Amino acid sequence: MSGAELALLLLAWVLGGASPGPATMALASTGMSRGRAPALALAAGIVTGSAAWGVLAALGLGALMLTHAWAAEALRLAGAAYILWLAVKALRSAMRPGTPPPAAMARGGLWRVYLGGTLLHLTNPKAIFSWGAVYAVAVPADAGAAELASIGLMLMAGSVFVFFGYAWLFSTGAAMACYLRLRRWIEGAFGLLFGSAALALLTARPG
């Protein structure tokens, strides 16, 4: 691939990753409610999940899995179930009056947050379809292992920029102050957004 083609591919990848979705919503919710360290841990988990799909797609296993309807269906249902759980969690928080103290907001270790981010992206069909499209459409069929690896690393760098950037942005003092003022409204909005994403995933059909 030429330098111009790689630049266009990276730009499309970054714009796609930055578009609203379960990962960005989770980062916004975590960053505003819990602060920078949990948000960065969540971003690291999301990037890990994306890297896993990237490796599978480069090996051809992602495309192989998606040719089996049962595998794609299981992935879709698992993703919808996890996002629905996030919706219920946000709505329950919105129904609790008052503002939780900082200790309550920080509940749950960073490792648990990291695993949640990894699970979020491993159950996100958008991730494997995105990686699959890159290796099936954008990358030349005669690309060698070195070129596949370099393209994968370039795209992963784009993912790191997007998701860690969101983690930093949503955990700023201004964002957290806004959350403390409007906590119940914000959590309610996240609950509805997560619920809508889960419903869209449940009703989606391949093709």
Automatic annotation (TrEMBL):
The subcellular localization recorded is:
Cell membrane
Question: Which of UniProt's keywords are assigned here?
Answer: Cell membrane, Membrane, Transmembrane, Transmembrane helix
Topological relation to the membrane, as annotated: Multi-pass membrane protein
> What parts of the sequence cross the membrane?
38-62, 74-91, 148-170, 182-204
Task: Write down the InterPro entries for this protein, in alphabetical order.
Answer: LeuE-type (IPR001123)
Which Pfam families does its entry note? Answer: LysE
Organism superkingdom: Bacteria
The protein in question is named: LysE family translocator
